[in-house]
Amino acid sequence: MGTIDITVILIFTLLVFVCGLSFSKSGKNMKSFFAAGGALPWWMSGLSLFMSFFSAGTFVVWGSIAYSSGWVAITIQTTMCIAGVLIGFFIAPKWQKTKALTAAEFITDRLGYSTQKIYTYLFLLISIFTTGAFLYPVAKIVEVSTGFPISTSIIVLGILILIYTAVGGLWAVIVTDVLQFVVLTAAVLIVVPLSLDKIGGIGNFVSQAPENFFNLVNEEYTWGFMIAFGLYNLFFIAGNWAYVQRYTSVATPKDAKKVGWLFGGLYLVSPLVWMLPPMIYRVLNPDLGGLADEGAYLLMCKEVLPVGMLGLMLGGMIFATSSSVNTTLNISAGVLSNDLYKHFRPNADNDQLVKVGRMATIGLGILTIIIALLVPYMGGIVEVVMSLAAITGGAMFLPPMWALFSKYQTGKSVLIVTIVTLAINAFFKFLAPSLLDFSFDRAQEMGFGMGIPVLLLAAFEIYARTRKKPTVAYDNYQLKVADKNLEAEEESASGNQKGTRVIGIGVALTGLLIVILSLMAETGAVLVGGMGLFVLLLGSFIIYKSSQKISG
Description:
Elements: H1 3-21, H2 30-35, H3 42-54, H4 58-69, H5 72-97, H6 103-111, H7 113-146, H8 150-198, H9 202-208, H10 223-239, H11 241-248, H12 253-284, H13 296-304, H14 309-344, H15 350-374, H16 381-405, H17 411-435, H18 442-467, H19 472-487, H20 494-518, H21 525-551
Helix pairs in contact: 1-8, 1-14, 1-20, 3-8, 3-12, 3-14, 4-5, 4-12, 5-10, 5-12, 6-7, 7-8, 7-14, 7-15, 7-16, 8-12, 8-13, 8-14, 8-15, 8-20, 8-21, 10-11, 10-16, 10-18, 11-14, 12-13, 14-15, 16-17, 16-18, 17-18, 20-21
Transmembrane segments: 6-23, 43-65, 71-92, 118-138, 150-171, 178-196, 221-238, 259-276, 359-378, 384-405, 414-434, 446-464, 502-520, 526-544
Keywords: Cell membrane, Glycoprotein, Ion transport, Membrane, Sodium, Sodium transport, Transmembrane, Transmembrane helix, Transport
Catalytic activity: iodide(out) + 2 Na(+)(out) = iodide(in) + 2 Na(+)(in)
């Protein structure tokens, strides 16, 4: 990687960092810091949801599977499209109607504080491993592209991410997410045609690909796995506390529906575009082994991108993948501040609560860095992500979400389901191989992890309905929601205007940077220049629209 690419990375890093820090004064209270005022535009929230979820493993996890198994990686991600559509229709509007600042607040209102406290401890424990698994791919990308040691990359990037998340809150997360979406979409639309040209076109790619490379499934990722993983995605995207924040931060149930539908629509078209580069690299270089295939995406980019564009692509990948880290850090800090600290200090004012939230972000960020450093010792990122999904996905996120729709579930029932499922999944993952000489394959592990909580919750539902159990907890919850609707305050639209303006400026400056880089490109100059001009015009249009709203 040359001096120009490194310079571009530094410029883009500075741009993202400044955009995030520009919201340092927006965290005037808990609602603005952890929910962006509660009236976030649906398209911003939807793009942020997409970036927060997609960036967790697209480049490294799914890129690794695309390199080794081909079209299977696209099939896996299609399950996310289906999940997004279903969430938009049925689940996202239900979350918005709870009027809760966090999922933990909903659990307190619906299932009781003692239930919420146990869930909070479990969520925080699991989220540390989750964010560590998200931070590792960022550092892997840097290592592959620059040669910097992965441990150094983890520490430096972790500190950078936690600083702007601690300072700017959810607005910092949202704005940087949208900016990264535009940058990465522009960059990958340059990478794909250049990659195909590198191997002589689509015909050569298809003819030289390994046998069965375009099969929808394979022996490891079977149709059974796809169904189970689809259920996991439904539970995870709909019930993960960090993603619930995207549904509760918009103004209306209709907007929450659009958030889910936008997510699903993007996952209908994006997997093919995103997965082509590592698939093409398999034809170009079929000899990657071990954990080296985790870097296939970046290695393809290094082959074809003109000078400077690799740096921009890398910068976009770094901060897109880090989106999953800052999203989880923000909501985890919100839970600690709003749902734990506030309970013990009910008279704490907003300034104190926001300060606690920022301190919690820093503490959780440090733990995230430590876990990320340990990922290589846990079997690599694919193993960590898939195991976390199978063990915790259904157990943690389905039971509280079920309570959104059921009058009969109680704090006791959902806790029993969660703890029993976690215990059973952990036993078969960690103890059964040595004690019973038995272990699940990937599909069985995922199916078992998703199936147990469904069966247990359904059994309790049938039992409670048959016995006509009283629904006192649900009736009290309905009264609390009614009170929240009466007390809801109108938030100023200034945050939305500023957010849109900052996004526009960031996009326009990125477009200008791409145009400048096209002047240095030895190959693909017209393609790069045209894309840069489009991004520049898009940013200018966003700035114009935001200024119209302000003057209006």
